[in-house]
Amino acid sequence: MEAERRSRRPSRACLFLAALACSCPAATAAAATTSQAFNTTLLDDPLEPIWNRLDGLSTDILRDFQSMVAEIVETTSTSLEAKLQKLDTDVTTKFEAINNNVLRRLSDVTNQTSRMDASLQAWNSQYLTSVRQQIAASYQEVETVVGSKIAALENKVLEHINNKIASLMSFNLTLPQHSPAPSSSASSSSSTYSSTASTALSAEDSQSIVNQLNAKLVAIDAKLEDLADKVNAATSTLSTINLHVAKINDMDLDRMAHEPGITGETQAGSQSCQTLVDKVSELMDNTQLSSDVINELENRLAEMSKIPTNLPRDCSDVHWYNPSSPSGVYEVFPTLDVKNSVSSWCAMGDLSQKESGGWTVILRRRNTTWGLLDFNRTWDEYTQGFGNPGEGEWWFSLDALHALTYRQPYEIRFLIHDVERGSFVAHYNTFRVEDEGHQFRLIVDGFSGNISQDAFKTKHHGRSFSTWDRDNDNWDKGSCAINNGGGWWFNACHYTTLTAPFPTSNDRNARTIRWLNGETWLVLDDVTIEVRPNNYALRFNAHNFE
Questions:
Q1: Phi and psi (nearest 5°) for 511?
Q2: Can you give the pLDDT at residue 53?
Q3: What CA–CA distance (Å, rounded) separates 187 from 287?
Q4: Distinct helix (H) and strand (E) counts, the chain
Q5: Which residues make beta-bridge pairs with 523?
Q6: CA–CA gap between residue 103 and residue 250 (Å, rounded)
Q7: DSSP annotation of 173
Q8: Are the CB atoms for 271 and 135 separated by under 8 Å?
């Protein structure tokens, strides 16, 4: 209906033409009249007829015209609304896109900031760890140097005092063998003089005795003055040592203030230094050599003379003094304390090549009936040692290892046997175990041998010792000692562990006693670890060929 109505509706052009056509006869008639009567008044508005004609149009045409105008307005309004709605949609879409882009950029910046922060924290942690390791190494070196200097000073002071006492005690006063009193009628039974000598001391004899006494007193005074000078020099040296000890204590306090986690690590060195200083101080408290002081020193010298001077510290000392000694169990004294001996198996090597001996066996494992000894022991047991050397399996002692290896450079040798692949050897020319205050930290370097991988240093150098009751490893998910069994210098966790249980099968991935060799594990059924002073063979040969 709407389309039909629009088809009948005349256009605006048609209406205008129709109005012109309707007005043409009137205009023609008016022109004819004008030609006849020139006095006729012209119309004011030449379009007046058109307007009059338009006024006479029918209401249908006007209604259609109004409808057309209303439709045009409606169409235009709808079009404008659609365009506004589209514009609003486009603006909203653009805004959301911009907002999403800003959020994405913000998220990227946040992630980059987080990564940078994590990287900075990791770098800071590594730097602090490196600084702490350098400080610990420097402190250990200072502690070793100061300890050796103080020990040398103590030995020199004791030796000097011993010599002086021996010199003082060596004075013997030789007197003429006369009777003790002038009134005596008989000569001394030990006299060597003639029986015809006078029973009274002559003036010449008296003068001789006086002169001899004076000479002896002058010599004693000179000795005392010399000894006093030595004591004063030693006192001055002691003051210097006390100054260095004070500096070390200040360093300890400063480190403890900046690193609260360090507790007993820095105290052991200062205590050992102070102990030595106290010993020296005891010897220098009295500068006057009174009779009581001399008696005390004589008593101490008598006690010291009872202590053997050739106590073997390890098997290399036993071998050094007696190269023909067979392999076996010997008593050694790692701390040089006669009351603190350690039974040790000494591997004396081939008698035809005597420089091959002198090894102290610190660990022995033999898979006899799946192991003779349980190595899943406590911290104290590993510290003191356990087992019976020469009778199956044993562990030497962490305390004894520290006492040996901190005094001089040591080497270590691993003799291991795989259940299927045979024997292997790993050798390191640097081996040291720090004290218990440093959790018996391992220092190892200089690998050689027929094993393709340096598993011991790569994974375990610088690590503290751990047991099931003392977790010092670097594994944050648990305890390596509990997970693998036995005590060891675990990291997180190991490339080698030689105190673990023996294997019950050929499974090379089981948690057993093993050594990483390239991409696979060596599964072991026989292990020997032995140590001796570094370059011992060269020194032994040089000593015996002199």
A1: -80, 85
A2: 74
A3: 44
A4: 13, 11
A5: 514
A6: 55
A7: -
A8: no
